[in-house]
Amino acid sequence: MRRWVLAGVSLMMVLCGLGIGGVTWLIQSQFANTVGKVDFDRPLAVPPLAPSTVDAQGRRVFNLTAGFGQSDFGHGRTETWGYNGKYLGPTLRATRGEQVLVNVHNGLAEDTTVHWHGMHLPARMDGGPAEPIAPGDTWSPTWKIDQPAATLWYHPHPHETTENQVYNGLAGLFIVDDPATDVAALPHRYGVDDIPVIVQDKKFDGDGDFDRGHGIFSDIGVLGDTLLVNGTAGPYQTVTTQRVRLRLLNASTARLYDFGFADGRSFDLVGTDGGLLSAPYAMKKIKLSVGERADVVVQLKPGERVTLRSFRTGPDWTNGGRDEFDVLQLRAAAELKPSPAVPDRLVDVPRLDPASAAQERDFTFRGRRINGHKMAMNRVDAVVTRGTTEIWAVHNGHDTPHSFHLHDVQFQVLSVDGGQPPGELAGWKDTIFLPPHEEIRVIARFADYADPTTAYMFHCHVLMHEDEGMMGRFIVVDPDR
Ligand code: C2O
Ligand code: CU
Ligand code: CU
Q1: If you take atom 3 of ligand 1, which residue's CA is the nearest one?
Q2: Is the beta carbon of 291 within 6 A of some atom in ligand 1?
Q3: With a 6 A CB cut-off, is 117 part of the ligand 1 pocket?
Q4: pLDDT tens track for 271-307
């Protein structure tokens, strides 16, 4: 009898052990870690500057065609989507004061849209889900660039299919120049000392194609184990100047990054989503949630190699918090051309005064809903009066991380969970990490454009959440309406 009991207990223990081992293995297999494992054997692709012409009305005209392609990311042939090419799109560049016109042609087999993320423009030109472009059609929005120099971007925003279209490769940069706010002393030669760094995480299936499977534990969608920068896997960039500016964009579908250098060196944050900061902010790591940008300037010594890394972002392993990646290797030439020091003062960032706010609104993000609602194309969630300033308090009401994004305007951050915002949130922003259970208060002025019939969007920029309805619509109306 005792023998049987003992045998039973041992069997139970073995099974338990296997169970725990299995679960541990399953959890471990969900972690991605490429630190020290990236070969950095491919030169970083730099997206070409989009050619443009000036038409008879003086408008700067760009052409973008969304279409199919095949790319090589070191996994054989991968079916990809791109604008004017096989993956990603060219960098559009225009100067404040210019009227631009973009002919967007849909060469795909499904509806798409193009949204100008961070751009201040009329709602009809914004490219949200209400402006679909059918396959074979061309959409030609036109607007006047009227905002400070900034690193913006563009990507599809079709109803319920944004995650897939962006994941397949549709995205690009839109750099706004402004003679009044460009700082000549900052590195500014595109592709030489001013380098776009578009970061995306991918998974590959056995055929080398993108794996679209959402992680079994993830509440935010696809979490890849391979990073691409500008569509290059394992990239290095040769640096020929003492200082280099990196325009970091998190163009992933879900993942939060915490960028820094492997050797712990500090860098100067000089700009965020909507423009330059009033002064450089020295830091060692910067978190970027989906859709956020950071312009950083880093100094190099001749001949050295330094790795841009993404560090652990927190304990939330189910949503990639424990993952770490080597992102990009900077290889300094044996001799470096001198770069001017980063100036102590950059531009004026006039503060919006909370006392001037005409309205304060509260939004709670929970369960793929905002204030209990999923996005509906026929519901307006906020009516804003043109020319007024508003405070939006955005609260994350559960355990899932989100990324709050507001169309039309750039905002300033008033508080993060009741406290003063950190230095990296001192400038213009259009997208901000919304950690579980925290509240962010932002202030914005809704100037210039009113349209009672076309809405702008505000939403979570985790694209699976956006597609599943975590989005609202607001309209801006004339004061005398
Ligand atoms: Cu970058 Cu509404 O999107
Ligand atoms: Cu946007
Ligand atoms: Cu979200």
Answers
A1: 117
A2: yes
A3: yes
A4: 999 999 999 999 999 999 999 999 999 999 999 999 9
